[in-house]
Structures are given as C-alpha cells and as structure tokens.
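Hello forum,

I keep getting stuck at the same step: I have a sequence, I want structure tokens, and every attempt I make locally crashes halfway through. Rather than fight my setup again tonight, could one of you with a working pipeline run this one for me? It's a single chain of 325 residues.
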Amino acid sequence: MESSLAKLELLLSESGQMGMEGPQCPKWKWFLGLQDLSIQGYPSNGWLGKWDPFPPGLRRLKVSKGGKIPISTLLKALGGLPNLHVLNLDHCSLEQPPVLQQTDGITMTNIEELEVTRMLTDDIRALISQVHTPNLTSLSITYPVDRGLNIAKILIPFTKAHPELRSLQIRECTIAKNEWSSILQNVASLNHLAIRASDLRDEDLRGLALGFLPIVPNMTHLTLENELRLTTSLVEQVVRTHPQVVSVILRGWNASNVSQANVSAISRLVSHVEIQTFGNPEDEDCVGSERGDEGWNDSYWEGSDFSEDDGWLSGDEAVVAKGRL
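Reply #2:
Ran it on my machine without issues. Output:
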C-alpha cells in the first residue's frame, strides 16, 4: 500500500550494517509522494533497486555519511529527480573514474540550493563539474575535510558562472586575500553573505569597504562568525559602503576587536545588530548584545555551556582556536 508520507528520514545504525547484501533502503515505489528525503549511513549500493528509482517528486535530498559514492551512482540517482530543488551532501566522498568528461554530467535546472559539508575539495570539484545547476541561488560550503585548500580555484569560476547567487555561506575554508575579492566581485546579486571560522583578517574583506560603488550592491544580510581577527572598524566601513544592509550578525568574536563606537555607528545604519564576544563583560570594549525593534538586550558569554544552534557552538572558544567545529 502506497504511503502518503511527504518527509522521510532514514538513519542506519552500526548494528544495521549486517548482512551479505548490505543495508537496503525501503522500496521507493511505496513512497511516491515523498518530497523531502534524508538518508544517513546507507551505502550508495543500497539506495536504489533495479527498477526502483527515488520518488520522482522529491524536492529536497540530503545524503550524509554515505561512505564512498561512485559518481556514476550519484548521477543515476539525481537523473531521476527533475523536481529537485535542494541537494545536501554531508560527510560523503565521491569515487571518481580516472578521467572525468564534462559531457558525462547532468543538468538540473530546478536545483536552487546546494550544500556540501565535510567533503574533500577534489570531491566538491567533481560534484560541481558533473552536476550542472544553472539556476542555483544558494551555495553553502562547510568544513571541507582538507580545510578547503585550493577551494578558491573552484569558487572563483563557479561564482562567475552563477551570477544570480543570492546566498553564499562559506565556513572553515582557507582562502587568500586576493581570492576573496575575486569571489565577491562575481556575486553582484548576493543578498546574504555568511562566513565562519575561515581565519579572516580585515585585509581579506577590504574590497567590500573600498570605493564609492559597493562591490555587492544588493547585500542585505552580513553574518561573520568565529572570526577572531576581524574588527568592527572594518564591518562599519562595509556597512557604510553597502547601504542596503539591514542585518549584521557577529558571533564568536574577540572582544578586543569590538569597539563600542563602531557598534553604535553600525546600529544607526542597520535595523538589526547581534554581537556576541569572548571576554570579560567588565571590559569597556567587550560587547555581547543584540539590538532589535525593542532596543538592546545585553547578554555576555564566555565560551561554554551554550545551546546548540544548527549543529555547532559558535561560542566554543577552544574549538574556534583549533580552527574547526
């Protein structure tokens, strides 16, 4: 009997990985109404049956801890999903043939959001070279296993080929100063820029604060988290250069880099400011507060015992110091 489920999350425990044929996903023909599917721990040879592809109406697909996935298997699975809007790969690796041919890929015109987490940079390169997403509006790259070394060599041509990106989230990547400028100048349509734990310095984002014309003219939301070397002086300059910005979120900052004068200036320029720092709340320049429609709400914090937010602890100072979450 066919199920009317619209959302399904499959989690394979270690004890479920027994058997000669390996773990198998359920028969998809009984879940034709699925729109949101998450698969964790299942090897790719257990995703699909011979005559049993993924439900064609899927709009969101997340695969995590999938082990080594032959890229041919991934392409076969995605090829039967013409309505897919969101693709999320987490902690997976791609098994690639010796030579990848550009013509071997597939084009998925409906994918709007692509998120890759804990994957090797080479695997990210293989993914975006084989899965073409001409209408992509949101890209998120989080904690490449190799800290994103050479990730800029992927992002520069990718952002140039996707000028309509509205959201760009880069977390825990190693990108040089001139490479940041090359990436950001390609995304003039960007609304939301979020960077976390990428060891930024003011010089890296200086391009956002120079000139009379903003480099990202449509940016409305700026989020910078766990960046211990950035200063609020730079952020104020960026906001002044980008008058469309309405929200600034700075979490996990070094309190010595947060100036009350800069924060006051930023708060006059945007409608929402959220700042959370490490340090002693008695220090003059240690700011840990949020300003919304109802004014400022002070909340100092020291980097421990914080609730989990979207899978990470922005205030864990020890973790930030290690450069990973």
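The two ends are 43 Å apart (CA to CA). If your local run keeps crashing, start a new thread with the error log.
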